[in-house]
Design a protein that fits this description.
Elements (H helix, E strand, L loop, with lengths): L4 H10 L2 E4 L11 E4 L3 E5 L15 E5 L5 E3 L5 E4 L3 E4 L3 E6 L1 H4 L3 E2 L13 E3 L5 E3 L5 E6 L3 E3 L4 E8 L30
Antiparallel strand pairs: 1-7, 2-14, 3-4, 5-13, 6-12, 8-14, 9-12, 10-11
Length: 189
């Protein structure tokens, strides 16, 4: 079951959903819009090189200036939202906004799924810490397009789970900047 605007608002008030910063004007009938942070990352490859799943591939940091930045096709831009939109009670999901998609901007390739408890940490003493992670965006464009920091880039909606709840404890729980792939950690050492 998907949460509606009023259910999201109540869950935020009750502490079951964390949206930081929370802008009530960004609430839609069944989601909340999130905005593009100025920080981007791209992979740095030399001619003839390829990305390697077993390696921590080199990256380059970019800043989107106030006057915007033109994104180019055939480049993966790893971005992030300004907002943390997470929950320990509901499953958060990310989708691009239709206005953005109609410009030929893909905001995520496959990572639109947020796990229950993503961003939360249970300490041995029972205390719960919230790390306020931001959503990583895998941005690809169909044609050159100028983007701006702070634009409403996507929306997060929340789904009520069925069954026992187990919290996510993986490698992206504390991200506060764009995060490249950590697939190399899946291969062990």
């Amino acid at each position: 079951m998907f949460l509606t605007r009023n259910a999201i608002k109540k869950a935020v008030e009750d502490g079951d959903i964390i949206i930081q910063p929370f802008e009530p004007k960004h609430l839609s009938p069944n989601s909340i819009d999130v905005t593009l942070n100025e920080n981007l990352m791209v992979y740095e490859l030399q001619e003839g090189e390829c990305l390697d799943m077993k390696k921590d591939n080199p990256t380059k940091h970019l800043i989107i200036p106030e006057e915007g930045l033109v994104l180019q096709p055939n480049i993966l831009y790893i971005g992030m939202t300004n907002e943390s939109a997470i929950s320990h009670s509901y499953i958060p999901m990310f989708e691009g906004r239709s206005s953005i998609g109609r410009l030929g901007i893909n905001t995520h390739i496959t990572a639109g799924f947020g796990d229950l408890g993503w961003g939360f940490e249970k300490l041995e003493n029972g205390e719960v810490i919230c790390h306020y992670p931001t959503w990583t965006l895998e941005i690809a464009v169909v044609h050159p397009i100028r983007v701006y920091p702070g634009v409403r880039i996507g929306q997060v909606y929340f789904v009520e789970p069925k069954g026992d709840i187990e919290w996510y404890t993986g490698k992206y729980s504390k991200q506060r900047m764009p995060q490249p792939s950590r697939s190399f950690k899946d291969f062990g050492s």
